[in-house]
Amino acid sequence: MNLAALADLFASRGLRLLPGSHAVPVELLVQLPDATIARFTARGTTLRLRHYSPDALTSIVIAAECGCGDHHPQTGPNRVTLSAFATPLSEHVLDGELLFGWTTHEAGTLRLPDALPHFFTLLPLLTPTRTLAVVA
């Protein structure tokens, strides 16, 4: 599975895969039907889903490589990302060490198809209140 196929899968479920998502290591930015943002990451031994308000998204301008303006415009394309100052409304964590016996960086080596079931396990737990939950 690649990101294009994942975008189609998400669209069929009313979700929108946002630019800035990566298949390796898995990092997904997803706009939910209520316009809030979910960020799913697989790092170390942890699978994490954070929930953000819609205003947590920002756009940054990527500068052109040379920036001289002679043969490239002074500014490059815009990139949608989470603001550096965004704080999650809620966060849910699967501790791979407790659940699966992971010891180092197994979450970071998960392929996209292997990480998706964990995303869909955590997705129904999202609430618009400030909470921290660790699923063990």
List key phrases describing it:
136 residues; 3 helices; two-stranded antiparallel ribbon; 19% helix; six-stranded mixed β-sheet; alpha+beta; single chain
| Uncertain ranges | 129-133
Work out the radius of gyration: 17 Å
Report the total helices. 3
The span between the termini is 28 Å
Please write the string of helix (H) and strand (E) elements.
Answer: HEEEEEEEHHE
Give the total of beta strands: 8
Q: Which structural class best describes the helix and strand composition?
A: alpha+beta
Description of the structure:
The chain is α+β, with helices and mostly antiparallel strands and 136 residues long. Helix content is 19%, strand content 35%. The protein is built from three helices and eight strands. It has helices at residues 3-12, 96-100, 112-122, and strands spanning 16-17, 27-31, 37-43, 46-52, 57-63, 75-82, 90-95, 131-135. Strands 1-2-3-4-7-8 form a six-stranded mixed beta sheet. A hairpin with a 5-residue loop joins strand 2 and strand 3. The longest helix is centred in the C-terminal third of the chain and has 11 residues, at 112-122. It is globular and about 55 Å long. It starts with a helix and ends with a strand. The model is unreliable at 129-133 (pLDDT under 50).
